[in-house]
Amino acid sequence: MKDDNSAAVLAVFNAINKYRASLGLTPVKYHATVASLAQDWSDNIATREVIEHRANFWTDPRALNPDRGAGEVIAVRWDRDAAKLVDWWKGSPAHDAMLRDPRFNVIGVGITFTDGNWQTTPNRYTMWGVVNLFGYSTLPAGTVSSPGGSTAPKPPTPPAASLCDPIARHQPPTLNLANAAIRSAGDLVAVDPYGTLRDYPALGGGKFGAARTVGKGFTGAKELFVADWDRDGVFDVVAQQLDGRLLVYPGLVGGGFKPAVQLGGTGWQNMTMAVGTWCGSNRLPQVLATNSTGQLFFYRNLGLQAIGAASSLGMTVPARRLAMVDYDADGLQDLLAVESNGYLRLYRGSGLPAPKAETRPVVGTGWTDYSGLRSLRDVTALNSTGIAGLTADGKVEYWDLGSGKLSTFTTVATGWGGLKLAQ
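The structure corresponding to this sequence follows.
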């Protein structure tokens, strides 16, 4: 006769989410169909008294076709302290990796109680626990916030492709930028603690010139971004301010910058941003940003005025840093997300507001050391693309992306301690 396991299921669910919250990860949700898969296997192994995984559990119809990864963890205890199952999984590197995998957003929990060896240890019980973890680009219908909870809200519909339509056709003049603050899309740009902006001009062949002071007063910024925001042919600086404002400093062809124009008034200090020509049909840069819960938003560029309203892309991107770059050399910008575990995950761009609907591969590990990531062009050769990262010890490392994947990095600058890399 089965004993009531609802309290144990809830204890496991809450313990997993408490652990994920401590790591800054998005909480998982619950689904009864997935739970039936986990409970069936828990009963199965308990009956046979073996610890083994279900073969191809992610192809079972009850898995509901996960497209962002799948995992299964199993443990057994000789008491009814279900939360301690999670402690055991946390202590095992392979199992811990599944609990902390940011791709997973739905789980099911199976708990089965059987008698222990009652002849030698009266009142001792064996508790078998199975958790199936799945990742879905779109949450399956019937997903709930917790075991016994209310149905989770349906993800928002991705924005229409028309959001990428340009406000005007921009074909900037070919300007001589020899005197401009930022001379090319390959320049490294940094700001020091006193708000002084420095430009390190790209010289070709992966080399950079000595720093040039190109601006002052760039204080109070959480992050700086280099982009030709108004598409006039001169590079501008977009500043995400710690006081919540989003500003753009339009560049002047003769050097320096115009006074800042406010693009956004409040709330930007809590966003994680990337700036670039995300839309394939629009020469104006756009903004992709995630909020504190990892929801991804698209912001339309309306020129030197307030930025367009946020449009949800209907997906979660758990990231501590974002960068926009043509990673796979297909002519479209892609999104690189640095996750809290150091994974670098690729979200390939489609040329439209939403990324391509596909599996999101991990393309690098150990990326939490970088305090800034900058997409660069023409650094190693004409039309070459790559990405630079500033390390904690003041080195600038560069990866060429000409092959459509990360190459071995080269160190292109040192002595950047105390500087912030503009992205």
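The first helix runs from residue 6 to 22.
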